Amino acid sequence: MGNEEVIGVFAGVAQRGDAADLAGLLGSDAVVPDGPIRPAVQRLWDRLSAVVLFLDAGSAVRLIAPLLRDKRTDPAVVCVDADFVVALAGAADTFAWRIADALNRTAVVTAGPSIDSVLDELVEQLDATADGDVAACAAAIEAGEKVVLRNPLNFPLPALSANVVSAGEDAAWVIVVDDRAAAPKDNVLRIVPRTLVVGVGSTRGASATSVGAALAELDAQGGLDLRAIKAFATADVKADEPGIVDAVEDWGFWHGDTAELITFSAEELNATGVPNPSSVVRNSMGTASVAEAAALCGARQISNGAPVELAAEKFKRDNVTVAAARVLPRGRLALVGLGPGAPEQRTPRAEAEIRRASVVVGTPEAVDAVAVLMRPGTQTRADGARELAEGGAAVAHVAFGTGPTLDNPVEADVIVVPGVWER
């Protein structure tokens, strides 16, 4: 709900009389703004605790969609037609019943988990698997309960509610963002990003069962969550090894996903430094390492320039050797063009990037234009986008027109979202 107890009742010319009658029933907190509906709603949105729209549901949804930020802070929004009062956004159920009673209409409310939960978006943007009750954890956040978030690898995260803290006791829930294995616990939500490339080497004819057993060692001994695997890698001479190929397919079947099998030449592998080179492997393969070197080469190939590290040194079992490399997270810089600036002229991708940022950078005018899109807790700055992203933050740098540009490379993941500029 908004900070002020102001109810906005909005209607076109034909329904203005009905709107005025309703405002009279609602009391002194209700106002009926003059003029067209869209600019009036946009102008007053941040001051309103509730909104009544004398519009059909489709028009109402299109109007408010760019303005919505968070269920706990959005005003309660309902739309009204000749028969129904429909709860659309915010904590609108009780408000819909109130308006329906006043107008002698039928309230239409729905119940269920919110599809725009920050946790759902977080899982999607990290290309992650969620292990735990996402809906229950999201409900705790929305209810203002204390939730502890642990992010040991420092993934760039969007702004989160003030009740989501980095440490503390007596939390209703704990969220852990990590690719390392852990036993399931009550009221713990694990978000497992896909950060790992597994290098595999084997003797000729090793079975898929043997490869799978060796992979299990990455969990049992290496402490890695196998759901974090992004790709597999091996020497090019092993590309058609049935045991390796079948094991990769088996992994995809059991995890409901697919992973690429990347191959490298002996020369490429031999040029990669590893902690456990083998003279035996060098004599037979022309490289001192297959599993560790392939894991590191594969991680560098998919990293888009991000740093990589060996997450698990090689394990050998039943003539199969496996190792894992991790693509380390780094800051995120989205260069977002706002076009001419009006909400209806922004692209959906631009709005999504603003919601996933923890810091929005831009001129005061550009930042104000997107303020309604920011999650609660989002910081704003006039400059410093590069430095913030290189420091590990999720940053959206916004500007009117096609958007900001970079003069020099930046040590962060860069996403360009051009705006559409009118000629």
The main pleated sheet reads as:
6 strands, mixed
Overall spatial form: elongated
Highest-level CATH class of the largest domain: Alpha Beta
CATH H-level name of the largest domain... which superfamily?
CobE/GbiG C-terminal domain
- Strand content is 15-25%
Cross-sheet strand order for the largest sheet: 2-1-3-4-5-6
Please identify the structural class as seen in this structure.
alpha/beta
How many domains comprise the coordinates? 4
So, CATH architecture of the largest domain? Answer: 2-Layer Sandwich
Compute the separation of the termini in Å: 39 Å
Q: How many E strands?
A: 21
What are the low-pLDDT stretches, counting only 5+ consecutive residues below 50?
none
Range of helix content: 25-40%
Radius of gyration: 27 Å
Q: What is the CATH topology classification name of the largest domain?
A: Nucleotidyltransferase, domain 5
Overall residue-averaged pLDDT value: 91
Q: Count of helices?
A: 14
Short descriptors:
25% strand, alpha/beta, Nucleotidyltransferase, domain 5, six-stranded mixed β-sheet, elongated, 423 residues, five-stranded mixed β-sheet, Rossmann fold
Task: Walk me through the structure.
By secondary structure, the protein is an alpha/beta fold. It has four domains: 7-108, 3-Layer(aba) Sandwich (Rossmann fold), CATH 3.40.50.11220; 118-192; 196-327, CobE/GbiG C-terminal domain (Nucleotidyltransferase, domain 5, 2-Layer Sandwich); 332-417, Cobalt-precorrin-4 Transmethylase, domain 1, CATH 3.40.1010. It has 14 helices and 21 strands. It has helices at 16-26, 37-44, 57-64, 93-103, 118-125, 134-142, 208-220, 242-255, 266-270, 279-285, 291-302, 348-355, 364-369, 385-390; strands spanning 7-10, 30-31, 50-53, 76-80, 84-89, 106-108, 128-131, 147-150, 164-165, 173-177, 188-193, 196-202, 229-235, 260-264, 308-317, 320-327, 332-337, 359-361, 379-381, 394-399, 413-417. The strands form four sheets. The chain has a six-stranded mixed beta sheet, sandwiched between helices. A five-stranded mixed beta sheet has the order 7-11-10-8-9, covered by helices on one side. Strand 3, helix 3 and strand 4 (76-80) form a beta-alpha-beta unit. Helix 7 packs across helix 8. The two termini are 39 Å apart. The model has no long low-confidence stretch (mean pLDDT 91).
